[in-house]
Design goal:
Keywords: Membrane, Transmembrane, Transmembrane helix. It is found in: Membrane. It is a multi-pass membrane protein. Helix 1 runs parallel beside helix 8, helix 3 runs antiparallel to helix 4 and helix 5 packs antiparallel against helix 6. This protein has one domain: Rhopdopsin 7-helix transmembrane proteins (Up-down Bundle), CATH 1.20.1070. It has 9 helices and 2 strands. It has a two-stranded antiparallel ribbon. It is mostly helical.
């Protein structure tokens, strides 16, 4: 629901308690599933999924509490940064899985970038995007003039554009590896599920995160007076829903480690007990 501009020192509109509460509940359930699977499989490279889920929970819970605390700066900045930064953490785990998959398929020579550097380069870029967007979000949340608001929005926009560029580079590396492995199979595969199924999930998640980032780029690029920033429903349709789907898909990635198996195309999901027996 839209309210007059004088609703709050921070808010352009009055946020929906119902919408934020529903989002909080959904992300709480999804994050709990990730925590449970992480504790069972000890897939430590998936920790950023859990952290990102917690960011979403904190962000939307703070948003749900904001209508009755409209001028509470702490709540405003928690919801701003929590929702803004969570997808960067999701991306970090997506980056880390590709190097493990390349090793599990014995296809190190098919990678455009040396496997040891894939995680370092892309996760390092992710950390830079996190820092840039966090800085911009902090400036924007505390802005009291148009120039400071514009500065915060432009810094966030720069971080989002950089994140998209990094993600595109990552997808190029994944696609080249995919095409080369299909053309010249190594006879190896991860002992959890087919390598191609894992790659398809990786592509889907990458597209969803990129769609969300494009939405955010358009949102901040159009400026404070734009329709996207002055209405609430887009943040749920183009951010919350997409990130909930990402968390739902990625709960399948908790398999301890990607151990190679010869001629493995359709092997059931690994559990900690199965891993131990092997």
């Amino acid at each position: 629901m839209d309210n007059p501009d004088d609703y709050s020192d921070y808010w352009i509109y009055k946020p929906s308690i119902v919408g934020a509460a529903i989002a909080t509940g959904i992300f709480t359930v999804l994050t709990a599933i990730h925590i449970f699977r992480l504790s069972r499989t000890r897939s430590w490279f998936c920790i950023p999924f859990v952290l990102g889920g917690l960011f979403e929970v904190i962000g939307y819970a703070s948003r749900a509490a904001s209508p009755s605390n409209a001028d509470n700066f702490a709540l405003f900045i928690l919801q701003t940064l929590g929702i803004l930064l969570a997808p960067i953490l999701f991306a970090a785990s997506v980056y880390m899985i590709l190097g493990r998959l390349i090793r599990a398929t014995g296809a190190e020579s098919y990678a455009l970038i040396r496997v040891n550097w894939i995680t370092k380069i892309f996760v390092g870029g992710d950390i830079l995007c996190f820092a840039i967007q966090a800085g911009g979000g902090g400036i924007l949340a505390g802005a009291d003039t148009k120039s400071s608001k514009d500065l915060g929005q432009n810094i966030i926009l720069a971080g989002l554009v950089l994140q998209i560029v990094i993600f595109v580079g990552f997808v190029v590396v994944a696609v080249v590896y995919h095409m080369r492995l299909r053309a010249r199979p190594t006879g190896k595969g991860p002992a959890v599920m087919s390598w191609e199924r894992l790659l398809i999930m990786l592509y889907v998640v990458s597209v969803l995160i990129t769609m969300r980032n494009l939405f955010r780029c358009i949102e901040y690029g159009l400026g404070e007076g734009s329709y996207l920033l002055r209405h609430e429903w887009p943040i749920y349709v183009f951010d919350a829903v997409l990130m909930a789907i990402v968390l739902g898909i990625c709960q399948q990635w908790y398999f301890g480690s990607l151990k190679a198996k010869h001629d493995s195309m359709d092997v059931e999901m690994n559990s900690s007990d199965t891993t131990a027996s092997r």
